[in-house]
Amino acid sequence: MVAPENLCLSLAIDQLKASGTNHYAVWVINAPYPGGYVHHDCIWSHELNQLWQAWQEMFALRGLPPVPSVAAATSPLPLPSLEVEQTGGSKTSRLMQHLGISLWQWLFDGAIQSSLNQSAGIAMGQSKPLRLRLEIRDPNLVGLPWEIMQPQAGKQAISLSEQLLFSRTTSDVDPLPSQLANQFLRILLVLGEDTDSGVKAETSRLKLEKEADILAQVMRTSSQMLDVDSVVTARTPCHVDTLVQPTPAELIACLERGDYNVMFYAGHGKPAPNGGLLLLCPDVAMSGTELAQVLTRCRVTLAVFNACWSAQPDQDGQQAIPRSSLAEVLIHHGVPAVLGMRDSIADHEALSFIQKLSQKLAERLSIDQAVAIARQHLLTLYKFNQPAWTLPVLYMHPEFNGELLKPLEEGKTELPRNSPTQVRRKLPTAYLRLLESQDKVWPIQGGMMRVGRKLENDLVIQEQWVSQKHAEIFYRDVQADSETNSCYFLRDFSRYGTLMLNGDDWQKIHHQEIPLRSGTRLKFGSSQGQTLEFLVDVPVNPDA
Length: 544
Hints:
By secondary structure, the chain is α/β, with parallel strands linked by helices. The chain has nine helices and 29 strands. The protein has helices at residues 46-59, 91-107, 111-125, 201-222, 248-258, 288-297, 326-332, 347-362, 367-382; strands at 8-15, 23-30, 39-43, 130-136, 164-169, 185-191, 227-228, 231-232, 238-244, 262-266, 269-270, 277-281, 284-287, 302-306, 315-316, 319-320, 337-341, 392-396, 430-434, 441-443, 448-452, 459-461, 471-475, 488-492, 498-502, 505-509, 513-516, 521-524, 532-536. Strands 7-8-22-21-23-24-27 form a seven-stranded mixed β-sheet, with no helix packed on it. The chain starts with 7 loop residues before the first strand and ends in an 8-residue tail after the last strand.
């Protein structure tokens, strides 16, 4: 069952075969309120059929397999609204908008629209996003770009919204395996066979290895989040392993020993009845069904495929085969989330998408929200009338709440003890500086700096191991005959302590007070945290 905090409206579409090939039923299979479980019968019109055919002719990059007409075949109808007008924009943008509005009006009609409005209102009242999941049971409709649906001209497409989080789903699934709470990103990057058959094997592998290095670096650097406006945002540790043209046995062995929560695959793929085929290395392929076994066994939460056809069903003559796409097969076997491509995507588009997606996942956003923002990024770069932003297709298991990484929690922290003694003379200038980016400097104002995750602190570090009120750095007058000539001290109040570099070893300070000397390096809460350096009377720019 969907978790109570996960406000979700799930719709299903299926053909009413007894009533004719173009008769369909749309009904609600999950709603956030009892009265939301409604249904609506509708007819797939000839105009919709023509719009879909026009879309394929204009946007299919590799040529989609022939989709049978779901309405009675007739002679083509003119579509005057798609003609280019001097003030109306390009034909491509008008076609995309026209099809998006038509799909919305067809799906959200009558009681279905009312259920959506009520559900969205409940979510708004609770200040939460509403998840909208669409199950398409007629395989002939799977290939349509439902992600472009929009209620009217000028409104946002459904897959771009962060308040109405759109994904596809299927109720024909194995139970969701128990998921461990993840704190870090552990990514397996797999590059399969290069589609350019004219390149020599040695040259192809060198090219793929270079591409793997670039992609791995993009994923790692995307998780390195630095401060914005005196807030050190959460830096999620990210580990990336790469496999270049592995055999199926090598891929399985790596997944079984790696404890990964994300797998990225980039390479050639082709449709087949058992979830398609991924061409891992020359003349060696792995089916989606085979891959599903190891992904569920190894508890991989998110599988991303930059492979054409990965979100498309296979065809038997002129008929689409039910539940035959790679994405559907993996969800069917219990993989929580799968992102595939409806058609081939250019390398530079895929790189932009992966970079933004990795960044948002590292910020601990839910998978569907991260995908929406990465899709917005594609639209900004490559424009509305280009197909790039429409190509990613996200499937989510109906029992999955979208959480890849455990969100930051507000843990209990101890109240600060006695405040420092009154300062009776001019204070030496002191700073904390982020070691990884030395232009990030925070001055210690008035002899006191409070450090923690809560926004009321002087230095906010939004890492999950940092307590809300973690530590204080303060100035204290020191007597001339004191054993130490330090004037600054650190006092720890935290749950997990503060680490101080002592020679080559990190010393843990927990509920203690210690003197600080210029050059002391600190980590708050965990060895995985960012390193800050304490400095006194060092000529740095306090306004950086």
